[in-house]
Amino acid sequence: MKIIVMSDSHGDVETVKTVSTLPADAIFHCGDSELSLDDPLLHNIHVVRGNCDRDGRFPDSLLVQVGDKRIFVVHGHEHDCKRSMLPLYYEALEQQADIVLFGHSHLYGAEMKEGILFVNPGSTLLPRGGNEPSFVEIEWDHEVEDLAYEGISNDVNTLENEKKLRVTIKNLQLETIHSVEMKNYTRKR
């Protein structure tokens, strides 16, 4: 499975158009698009309201199931994410989220806490901290390896499931800025 995450595009329709056409199972925008809910660019994107969005019809948060993952999406301003991740962490526990997507700070980053992945894609228009404009791809799968042990007949092979999750932060030229892969990660419920 693969999802694409962007945030804080602040009216930059060209970037939203480019990022939203990339292949993915789901696309998310963590707020401050400054577009209308009716904008055709957003029709196939899960979008939440940011503090700069004038259209009050956007939801404050979303909980979306993608494959075997529960994805919780907020902008972050109502969870004070610039000061502490604790309010967002508690909300993630209440929502039983596997992945939390948020923006607001315009700083990209990814952090795993007790099996919950927290991802901020940064800003596609106004990045902070000396970063370049960015978005994120998150991929996960269940890769199966065929393990044949010596002394065991060929018809009695052992299969092992290895769970993988990869977070890739990309610039608008689609080049990788940072990437991290986790193996055998599981969410404790």
Automatic annotation (TrEMBL):
Pfam name, any one: Metallophos_2
Keyword Metal-binding: yes
UniProt KW keywords: Metal-binding
EC number(s) from the headed UniProt entry: 3.1.4.-
InterPro entries cross-referenced by the UniProt entry: Calcineurin-like_PHP_lpxH, Metallo-depent_PP-like, MPP_YfcE, Phosphodiesterase_MJ0936/Vps29
Domain of life, source organism: Bacteria
Calcineurin-like phosphoesterase domain location: 1-140
Name of the top EC class for this enzyme: hydrolase
Cofactor dependence: a divalent metal cation
Gene3D superfamilies: 3.60.21.10
Family stated for the protein in its record: Belongs to the metallophosphoesterase superfamily. YfcE family.
Descriptive protein name: Phosphoesterase
Organism expressing this protein natively: Sporosarcina saromensis
